[in-house]
Amino acid sequence: MLPLIKYNHETKNHYAIYNGKTIQSFDKRYVERRLRQVMAINSHHSSYTPLVEDAAVVEEKYGINVRFMFVEKLVNMVASGVQCSAILTGEGGLGKSFTVLKALHNNGYTDVDNLIDSVVVEEDEESEPIDRSMTYLTVKGYSTAKGLYRTLYENRDNIIIFDDCDSILRDPVAIMLLKGALDSYGVRRISWNADMKDDDLPRSFNFNGRVIFISNKRKNEIDQALRSRSMMIDLSMSTEQKIDRMEFISKSEEFMPEFEEKHKHEALEFIREIKDECSDISLRTLMAVTKIRSANKDWKELATYMMTS
Asked: Is the pLDDT of residue 239 over 70?
């Protein structure tokens, strides 16, 4: 007989406790499956001790949807100035960036690039200065240490998001700059003591901004000095957790509203059915299969090919 499965209205997760382990998920059926797997293991191996490889079977205390809820709370802390930095790690394609931007927008922040684009400059007329007090800047891709120094200086009073910008997390000079920017002291002083060819950049300045890192790296691949200066949430997932997260997102009004709920549900269940054959699963997978399902009556063969080839 399965243990009692309860519902947490605050986290919106179903959960059950078995042998001191908490198994929880947005999907009640997922909890039931995991309970049966764990109980089957224990019935055949009374002395069985879970290994690291069994992480997908014996769920951790905080499920993936709970951890994403923590991300929103942490971004709220950064937005309000309570916390100066946050680091989010884990595989890409399952909503880290979306969750961060949504939380910032809910706090009244605007993408500074959109703000700049909206300013119309009349010919021979100077534009009004842009109010950056409630803006954030997103930096993606490659950056040098010198480029980082400029970015920190030009946005020294604002929120900077480094999204999949792992080059600065590998550069020793960049890491030293970030250590100064993320320090917990009242005054965060950043200095550049090498040759300064850019006359518009000072050799040092006070950094009053806040920083959010979004990385596809694993938690233990992030420099320890940066981890110790930031609040960090790891969003690494097993295949089942990825599907669990995809189901949570698929039920929101914002996800592919132009497609039928039935088609999104059938696409998700098909992904769950052949998940072990797939080389990679992300939210983009669900989007692709949903489109295939919507456009074709005989759709599963094409979907299988797209997911497994």
From this structure: yes
Q: Are 23 and 16 in contact (CB under 8 A)?
A: yes
Question: DSSP secondary structure string, 239-274?
Answer: HHHHHHHHHHHHTSTTSSTTS-HHHHHHHHHHHHHT
Q: For domain 64-116+130-234, say whether CATH 3.30.1360.120 is its number.
A: no
Q: How many other CB atoms are found less than 10 A from the CB of residue 272?
A: 18
Q: CB atoms < 10 A from the CB of 111, how many?
A: 16
pLDDT at 122 over 60: no
Task: Parse the chain into domains and list their residue ranges.
Answer: 6-56, 64-116+130-234, 239-308
pLDDT tens digits, 179-201: 988 877 778 899 887 766 666 88
The closest of 46, 53, 159 to 110, measured between CA atoms, is 159
- Residues in contact with 194: Cβ distance below 8 Å, sequence separation at least 6, in sequence order: none
Model pLDDT, residue 129:
58
**Token pair of 138 as six digits:** 């997103």
